[in-house]
Amino acid sequence: MKSKHVSYDEESLKVLKAIANKHRLEILRILSVRPHNVNELAEKLNLPFSTTATNVKKLEDVQLISTELVPGRGTQKVNAKNYDRIILDLFEKEKEINDKQFFIDMPIGDYFDCYVQPNCGLVGEKSYIGMQDDPRAFYEPGRKEAQLLFMRHGFVEYRFQNKIPYGAKVKEIEVAAELCSEAPNHKLDWPSDITVWINGIEVGTWTSPSDFGGERGFLTPSWWHTNYTQYGMLKRWKITHEGCFIDGNNIIDTVNIDQLELEKHPFISIKIGIKEDADNKGGFNLFGHKFGNYEQGIHLTLDV
């Protein structure tokens, strides 16, 4: 399923203007079934040929549909859709990376260590990886292809290459991931306290309100049933000299970036999990590039 992302720029505004019309939306719906020529579209829309052709041209101009010449009774122009979904990104774009900033996008299946208890599982783009509700699946050779992992209790730990230049000091570190709670199938009222540790130091707990399901995630493949978990929320843990923040809110002011000792190790450990003494032990789902609503794994950004 091919998606087009639009956000805050002039090109995206043109796309939004193009689809802000009931006839053009209907054209896209019709073309989602199969390609049509303008005559066929005009007949189905009960519109004049000229009006239909104008609407087709506006959708072509923003590359939502394409037109090609195909043999028929002579040669005719046939219109086809280019995308299955149009996604409006309302979240803040990633900061532009400069020579004093280092960024890594870690696949969710590329964890270094884990402790897993059912219900649990690894899911690839096209099928499960190993057996569902079997912690042994988390040691499958194919685990690196995971696009969704979930567990009722436990953790996964990632080790990122330390790209900090020798002699440099880190000003801030940010970890971003798409997460939610983990309930059987899904449950909208299912809080879970999800904690992140960096180099073994706790840097903040976020209480997920829900195991989101019932409505398909933008990237979630069609074979994955909608009564299962579908998407999460994009959460950002940031640690600076002032303390630890989640989505810009100061969570811990007794831990700062110096205590993480990022410059002293060949790797940076990021652990995500449920604490033994958590108030809400609702598990967690972690989404990869091809599941959920955000096309990413675990993002690590360092500012020096």
Automatic annotation (TrEMBL):
Highest taxon in the source lineage: Bacteria
Database matches in Pfam families: HTH_5
Keyword DNA-binding on entry: yes
Keywords on record: DNA-binding
SUPFAM superfamilies linked to this entry: Winged helix' DNA-binding domain
A Gene Ontology molecular function term of the record: DNA-binding transcription factor activity
Recorded coiled-coil stretches: none
InterPro entries according to UniProt: ArsR-like_HTH, HTH_ArsR_DNA-bd_dom, WH-like_DNA-bd_sf, WH_DNA-bd_sf
HTH arsR-type domain span: 14-96
Protein name listed in UniProt: ArsR family transcriptional regulator
